[in-house]
């Protein structure tokens, strides 16, 4: 309830109910996004047009919002929406996007939608590049929006759902928040080199997976992947990196090959450095043996005292120091990729140019105001930092920071021209003399680097150094691309493209086939069938399922692995040639898919399960979640749909790629819609009458291709297990669409059984105790009904049917009762059990509801057995069994119950032991 004070409602302020990070395609979009479930509270009655001054105040703080097009699609569109009146959830979306952009992590995609059944609640969704940055931006966005509200409406709650840090706490304000966000971007965002390579890979359609919080990135999947960190690639030789790191060894190898390099020596004392300088001849250079980024380098040393100081400076960065001849000329960085010169930049040391009015300190401050300059590698250029090296260098010229250099005087602030110390770069790619380019290429090849930065001193890069003097002073592994991508002067060079071409030649994309299988029932069996067929075709298959992860037939992880994390694990496996991924509802809702796009997506069926959980209340809701799989299929891929299931069939409208149907209704029973699809040349796999029973037939491009009799597949129990025929139809459609030949598919399915080894927990049969045991993970009404259909066909061969039945406690009451009703229609004795966790229900409640369903169906009370624990319930079923009985177990702990079945002996049951005797 709210009370009124003037025009403002005094009531609960905004509250974050929860948040989610979608790392792949999800229910709301194909773009990775952060979702904030926001309850506006009293602010549901306060759109922006009712908040005086709100819009203008927000624009003043974030003027970039004026560029947001929103639904109008033109700059200013969002501001127009605010002036017309929009809800604060929508405002939060745009502010979170703009904050990330201001901090240097540009994103533009977002959407806000009301939540069904929750008045005043909105799903606020916005894109992100770095997960932690996106979460902090969401927190700051809500704090900022909240700060502009009337005092009686402020006090947003639940912000810790987003990010534990709050830079705006304690009156820090927007600027402090932006600084914190910028620092976080600096720590989490990819550097310019890695970013350029990732962007080129994405442009080429190569999948990208970030492997750590820094710059380790995987391009491609499975066996076709390549890894890189900045410009170090998975192909970069470790020996070559070591050679490049040893500057003396590098010079020796190059000199032996006739490459012009400066004379020099490695020393470990100032006295030795001075002796070598005298032998080489002044001027000389001192630098650490294994330094980088210009650290510890001193140039133009012309006296023994200067050499001593240079040695001491270099020794701070390593025990061994190089003293070498100083080449004269301009400092150039030549970038060699794959044995070819791809870019040349002339590097200019950090400096200022006098104007006759301002001091050197003021001139440095002016240079640092350039918006292209930032801290470290966050921007095109790096800010100049005043340190002892700067002041010492100025002192050599008789200057201080307070000195006012005359107009046009060039004042050096650094000896070296590294961008990381404030230097700039001028593109010279088109100017390099062919002989200089040849020298650089050979140097990279001699050291052995696939990507090399050659530091080349030359008076005039347009003339050969063999004529002018000069040569190579260093060969660098992991050269930065920044100076070539965005030079201070001259043309930007597209150097990421040749680097990616080197890793993925001839247009390779680094992709392996990704097959995603979803649905209510049959996912695990179909996934295993598909993996079995692909393995039969000679592929190394990575498979995820609710039972674990397998690679090349070996189990590498136990437990439920049907979510996105498991999918990513398989896609990172360096031996995998094809990924077959069971894709469950829970993972899609939690964080989206674990991959950007599937080559083949399959939806098997939609049935009542998990309803009433996480806002999936109806079958239509469930279908919307499952359809994410086929909506994320590649354009040149294939969506496989069950034509016998209306909700699955309806997904054809949104599914991507080629459409393939499977159906139990073939031949004369084929529905007209499916018949039209076949007549139009579409792909369909159907079960139809044949000479020896029901046949599996492929229709494709107007051709009819009989594959095999369904009874030939051991998993169908001679054709009795209709649900496994249906699973086989889906598996055939999937693998045929993937290009597996019919003979290979047929041979593979002829070897696919319901053994525990091949399909644990799915129609496993054990005959060893004088009675038959069937173990199947039938955990919802549709699954139990399909199992009971098979059991009913087996009834004539057995004396009694004993069934152990349960269902997770988070299912609806009507679903639990329905399980009891289905069991009552099949079994002679029913053993009801519960899961140990209860999933929110009191102990015994699930059994009570199951019993209510059975009793309502007319099942006798005396034949209902209530046993809480699964182990005890299994033992009870086995103990009740007599010769000729059929015991059906639907376990939660599949492996434990199967082990219990295998180790059971008739001696445990005296009556049975007597029968067996």
TrEMBL record:
<keyword id="KW-0436">Ligase</keyword>
<dbReference type="Pfam" id="PF02875">
    <property type="entry name" value="Mur_ligase_C"/>
</dbReference>
<dbReference type="InterPro" id="IPR013815">
    <property type="entry name" value="ATP_grasp_subdomain_1"/>
</dbReference>
<comment type="subunit">
    <text>Homodimer.</text>
</comment>
<dbReference type="InterPro" id="IPR011761">
    <property type="entry name" value="ATP-grasp"/>
</dbReference>
<keyword id="KW-0067">ATP-binding</keyword>
<comment type="function">
    <text>Catalyzes the ATP-dependent polymerization of arginine and aspartate to multi-L-arginyl-poly-L-aspartic acid (cyanophycin; a water-insoluble reserve polymer).</text>
</comment>
<dbReference type="InterPro" id="IPR044019">
    <property type="entry name" value="Cyanophycin_syn_N"/>
</dbReference>
<dbReference type="InterPro" id="IPR036615">
    <property type="entry name" value="Mur_ligase_C_dom_sf"/>
</dbReference>
<keyword id="KW-0547">Nucleotide-binding</keyword>
<dbReference type="GO" id="GO:0071160">
    <property type="term" value="F:cyanophycin synthetase activity (L-aspartate-adding)"/>
</dbReference>
<dbReference type="Pfam" id="PF08245">
    <property type="entry name" value="Mur_ligase_M"/>
</dbReference>
<dbReference type="Pfam" id="PF13549">
    <property type="entry name" value="ATP-grasp_5"/>
</dbReference>
<dbReference type="InterPro" id="IPR011810">
    <property type="entry name" value="Cya_phycin_syn"/>
</dbReference>
<dbReference type="InterPro" id="IPR018109">
    <property type="entry name" value="Folylpolyglutamate_synth_CS"/>
</dbReference>
<dbReference type="Pfam" id="PF18921">
    <property type="entry name" value="Cyanophycin_syn"/>
</dbReference>
<comment type="similarity">
    <text>In the C-terminal section; belongs to the MurCDEF family.</text>
</comment>
<dbReference type="InterPro" id="IPR004101">
    <property type="entry name" value="Mur_ligase_C"/>
</dbReference>
<protein>
    <recommendedName>
        <fullName>Cyanophycin synthetase</fullName>
        <ecNumber>6.3.2.29</ecNumber>
        <ecNumber>6.3.2.30</ecNumber>
    </recommendedName>
</protein>
<dbReference type="InterPro" id="IPR013221">
    <property type="entry name" value="Mur_ligase_cen"/>
</dbReference>
<dbReference type="InterPro" id="IPR036565">
    <property type="entry name" value="Mur-like_cat_sf"/>
</dbReference>
<feature type="domain" description="ATP-grasp">
    <location>
        <begin position="251"/>
        <end position="504"/>
    </location>
</feature>
<dbReference type="GO" id="GO:0071161">
    <property type="term" value="F:cyanophycin synthetase activity (L-arginine-adding)"/>
</dbReference>
